[in-house]
Design goal:
The protein is of the alpha+beta class. It contains 5 helices and 6 strands. It has one domain: Arc Repressor Mutant, subunit A (Orthogonal Bundle). GO terms for molecular function: DNA-binding transcription factor activity; transcription cis-regulatory region binding; zinc ion binding.
Length: 146
């Protein structure tokens, strides 16, 4: 999903998923859209000091259930959140893409534009979701180390 910083687009997303348009929800969407990497709840808490932890947790949980965001874990096991592709639906995500974990800055990047191989499971197995991640050094950290 392209990062749109205007509230009109975010309000459309909330309308589409039948969620009330609150300032906190709009701000969470804006924060997630403003970054090119996934963001953890603790990182959101640092910026959104006027929103309590429970409210932020409920917002992230509702967004994930509705298919607005998806969760990916960093190298420390911390959940990070990123906006979903526009074709995600309630309780059914279509975010089968590569996640890149940088070992230096610990950021998690969604690499949506890479072609992934088809997943051919043995007979009787049914895939509901899968996660593929790579660890390494991101371009920003790579430039710092030169």
């Amino acid at each position: 999903m392209p990062a749109k910083k205007n509230n009109y687009r975010f309000e459309e997303i909330l309308d589409k998923h039948q969620l009330k348009k609150t300032d906190a929800r709009l701000r969470v969407l804006s924060m997630l859209a403003s970054k090119n990497f996934a963001t953890s709840q603790p990182d959101l808490e640092e910026v959104m000091v006027d929103v309590d932890r429970g409210t932020l947790y409920r917002i992230l949980n509702a967004f994930e259930e509705k298919g607005i965001i998806h969760k990916v874990f960093d190298l420390n096991g911390t959940a990070n959140y990123a906006l979903c592709n526009s074709d995600c639906e309630e309780n059914h995500h279509h975010d089968e893409h590569l996640h890149f974990n940088c070992v230096q800055c610990n950021n998690v990047y969604c690499l949506n534009d890479l072609d992934l191989p088809d997943l051919n499971l043995p007979e009787g197995f049914k895939s509901l979701n899968f996660s593929l991640s790579v660890t390494g050094i991101c371009p920003k950290c790579g430039k710092k180390s030169k």
